[in-house]
């Protein structure tokens, strides 16, 4: 296998392409797809500033090769934009050039791209998104502009830079971020120090990815009251060290072969370390000889025509000294040579790979697929050829597909995202007798994994109608239907509301969507990854057949155990509900890898903390509750698109029946119809985030820890964690004034003209320091008031957990 050094260099030579299963733009929802399943994949340019130009590389694709590219539509902040050669597409390749940006209006530009494939025209809506920012304000500098990171020093990873402003310019920066560019994978190596405003640092968890000899240039996105600003080429982290990790060829290919009496040269080695004053020297050769020389500048080892080296089975072993401006290093036994009578030229007909006819998606892997036996060619070097498709190049760039340069063995990791079809992996082999080389392909047929499934449904009770009791008589209350049914609308799937935490129903698996085959399923509760009421989560049991049961309260009344107080007590703390996950694993009897997915389950247990009296609504003290339908809003953290929801206000209580079981009921007739004329409703506090993927830097929990994603969102909004000025609020809770700013808000509830509400998401702050967007769910305490007052910090305000937000970058909107 390639060394770690060579692998790292390979990654830096290519731009990492986002995983196709997550970041693709599919025609399935905009145009009918043909039998090839044609899909086009662009990298997204997120941030750019005035005066900058950029060429977005050609898209990858699934299906027949695309041609005749055209830009079909451009929008600016969802309004049609007249393109005056600001965006130009290459008709043949699909490359998009962004140019003439000096006078462009700031905002989010969405570019729709059309092309032909196999004789059909496809239109990809919003295939690329570009966030045009304002120019950097005057008086802003970064010191130093070039940070020297010397990896030979003990605390080298503490190197940093500071954003500064001139006091007389009156520049006030409220938010700091590294501008996004998906073609620069190294952006995730850096972040802003959460404890020092404007300080750019190296992320501790990513420091080992920095390569000595490389420079990393960052653009900054700075937020002021005037908007978002691009600081282009703001700072460069220049990583240096004395020479390290010298590499000639794979260990398996040693010794190299030199033909007696003829001119021979080694490959030019790669090396990590600073390039200033870089020199190479031969420190020793065993057996000892002076026949070999080394190019001081490149490290290439050679012997001239007519050299006196004799044929021998004993190889010459080299120790090479490499030095630069920061020091030197000896690399013992790093290269060896055997002198032979004759080096066989490559015989093209002997170089072949046996096709691999079955490589599954989602877990399928290939280990060391070597060329067929009988290959003829002395001291060969194998490498991927430039003729590979963009899809294959993308996997190579991420080191998912790798090759041993000495043996030609190809490996494919189990996290590959290759599309289901036959792929050709082009390999070029060269040697000293055939420097042009011979290109052959390993064909790989990728199959859909029959264990793959789209979703698991435990159903919902959100589609049940809430029965209105016209008499408002507690003693004759009509119970709210909590029975579980197969959802008819997927937006309600796996959402369950048990008001007061009562009448909990065990949940049976109702449906598994698997279109590729028949599998067996096992189920397991995901521990240590939930938010909400601990008493609910700790009482959950998931059986191997998928049945979810809830531990009931000790009094046997059929209620969920919510909080430490008795569920009968109308004054206990607000019930949060719970968000958790069930790990579902699909297997079958063939060789296809098992597929596991974590399925989120949402439990809502809304309740007011106490009975409240509103003279302008009703003279009695009642338990008021806001019910959202659905109570989970899907949101794209990148685009800000959200799913709609509706709200209703109910009076919720409990009536004693003959059998002693408490029943939920609702009173909403007559004077209650006017409630929505008085309500003010907003997020309050107590926010928590449940991470749905394996990104350890987006930790589950509240915003107190820097590893929690919410802490990073707070930082993106320029809001301190310890303040009550949360980036979720629509109102100033003390004054009652509307207090929103696109620069400092992450999300908020906005009233609409029809007495309903919409969720507003700032689609640029829901990401971590690694520049990866949220994939998980958020809940927080929400406060409402029926007294026609927007002052939500005192008085007859009611706190509940009415609405959950599910962040999913693949969500495209309704």
TrEMBL record:
InterPro entries for this protein: BT4661-like (IPR032529), Ig-like_fold (IPR013783)
Keywords recorded for this protein, A-Z: Signal
Highest taxon of source: Bacteria
Entries under Gene3D superfamilies matching the protein: 2.30.30.1270, 2.60.40.2710, 2.60.40.2720, 2.60.40.2730, Cadherins, Immunoglobulins
Region forming the signal peptide: 1-19
The protein, known as: DUF4958 domain-containing protein
Protein source organism: Bacteroides stercoris
């Amino acid at each position: 296998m390639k060394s770690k050094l060579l692998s790292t260099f390979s990654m830096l030579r290519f731009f990492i392409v986002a995983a196709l299963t997550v970041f693709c733009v599919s025609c399935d929802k905009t145009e009918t797809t043909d039998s090839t399943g044609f899909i086009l994949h662009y990298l997204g340019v997120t941030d750019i500033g005035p005066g900058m130009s950029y060429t977005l590389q050609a898209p990858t694709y699934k299906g027949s090769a695309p041609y005749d590219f055209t830009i079909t539509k451009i929008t600016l902040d969802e309004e049609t934009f007249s393109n005056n050669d600001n965006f130009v597409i290459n008709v043949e390749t699909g490359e998009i050039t962004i140019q003439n940006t000096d006078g462009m209006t700031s905002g989010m530009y969405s570019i729709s791209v059309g092309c032909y494939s196999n004789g059909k025209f496809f239109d990809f809506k919003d295939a690329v998104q570009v966030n045009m920012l304002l120019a950097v304000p005057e008086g802003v500098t970064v010191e130093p502009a070039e940070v020297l990171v010397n990896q030979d020093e003990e605390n080298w990873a503490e190197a940093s830079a500071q954003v500064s402003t001139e006091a007389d310019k009156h520049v006030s920066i409220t938010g700091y971020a590294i501008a996004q560019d998906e073609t620069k994978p190294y952006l995730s190596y850096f972040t802003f120090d959460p404890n020092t405003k404007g300080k750019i640092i190296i992320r501790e968890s990513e420091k080992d990815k920095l390569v000595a000899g490389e420079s990393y240039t960052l653009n900054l996105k700075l937020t002021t009251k005037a908007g978002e600003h691009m600081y282009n080429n703001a700072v460069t982290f220049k990583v240096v060290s004395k020479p390290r990790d010298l590499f000639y060829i794979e260990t398996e290919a040693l010794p190299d072969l030199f033909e007696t009496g003829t001119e021979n040269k080694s490959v030019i080695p790669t090396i990590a370390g600073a390039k200033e004053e870089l020199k190479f020297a031969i420190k020793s050769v065993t057996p000892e000889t002076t026949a070999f020389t080394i190019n001081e500048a490149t490290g290439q080892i050679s012997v001239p025509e007519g050299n006196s080296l004799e044929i021998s089975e004993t190889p010459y072993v080299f120790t090479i000294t490499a030095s630069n401006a920061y020091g030197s290093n000896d690399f013992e036994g790093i290269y060896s040579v055997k002198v032979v009578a004759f080096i066989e030229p490559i015989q093209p007909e002997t170089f072949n790979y046996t096709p691999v006819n079955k490589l599954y998606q989602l877990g399928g892997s290939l280990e060391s697929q070597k060329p067929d036996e009988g290959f003829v060619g002395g001291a060969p070097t194998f490498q991927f050829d430039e003729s590979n498709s963009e899809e294959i190049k993308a996997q190579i760039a991420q080191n998912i597909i790798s090759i041993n340069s000495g043996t030609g063995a190809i490996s494919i990791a189990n996290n590959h995202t290759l599309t289901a079809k036959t792929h050709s992996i082009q390999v070029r082999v060269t040697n000293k007798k055939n420097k042009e080389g011979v290109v052959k392909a390993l064909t790989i047929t990728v199959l859909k994994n029959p264990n793959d499934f789209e979703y698991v449904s435990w159903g919902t009770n959100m589609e049940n109608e809430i029965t209105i009791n016209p008499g408002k008589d507690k003693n004759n209350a009509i119970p709210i239907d909590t029975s579980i049914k197969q959802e008819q609308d997927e937006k309600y799937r796996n959402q369950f509301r048990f008001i007061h935490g009562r009448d909990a129903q065990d949940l049976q698996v109702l449906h598994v969507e698997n279109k590729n085959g028949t599998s067996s399923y096992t189920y397991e509760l995901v521990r240590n990854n939930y938010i909400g009421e601990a008493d609910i989560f700790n009482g959950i049991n998931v059986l191997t057949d998928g049945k979810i049961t809830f531990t009931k309260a000790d009094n046997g009344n059929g209620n969920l155990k919510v909080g430490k107080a008795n569920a009968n007590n109308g004054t206990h703390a607000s019930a949060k509900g719970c968000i958790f996950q069930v790990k579902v694993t699909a297997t079958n009897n063939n060789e296809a890898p098992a597929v596991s997915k974590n399925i989120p389950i949402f439990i809502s247990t809304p309740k007011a903390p106490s009975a409240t009296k509103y003279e302008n609504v009703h003279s009695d003290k009642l338990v008021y509750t806001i019910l959202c339908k659905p109570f989970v809003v899907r949101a794209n953290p990148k685009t800000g698109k959200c799913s709609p929801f509706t709200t209703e206000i109910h009076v919720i209580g409990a009536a004693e029946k003959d059998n002693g079981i408490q029943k939920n009921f609702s009173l909403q007739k007559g004077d209650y119809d006017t409630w929505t004329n008085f309500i003010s409703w907003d997020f309050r506090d107590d926010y928590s985030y449940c991470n749905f993927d394996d990104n350890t830097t987006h930790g589950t929990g509240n915003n107190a820890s820097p590893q929690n994603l919410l802490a990073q969102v707070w930082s993106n909004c320029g809001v301190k964690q310890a303040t009550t000025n949360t980036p979720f609020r629509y109102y100033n809770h003390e004054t009652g004034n509307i207090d929103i700013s696109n620069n400092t808000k992450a999300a908020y509830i906005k009233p609409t003209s029809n007495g309903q509400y919409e969720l507003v998401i700032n689609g640029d702050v829901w990401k971590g320091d690694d520049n990866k967007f949220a994939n998980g769910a958020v809940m927080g305490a929400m406060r409402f008031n029926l007294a026609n007052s927007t002052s939500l910090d005192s008085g007859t305000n009611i706190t509940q957990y009415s609405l959950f937000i599910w962040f999913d970058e693949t969500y495209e909107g309704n």
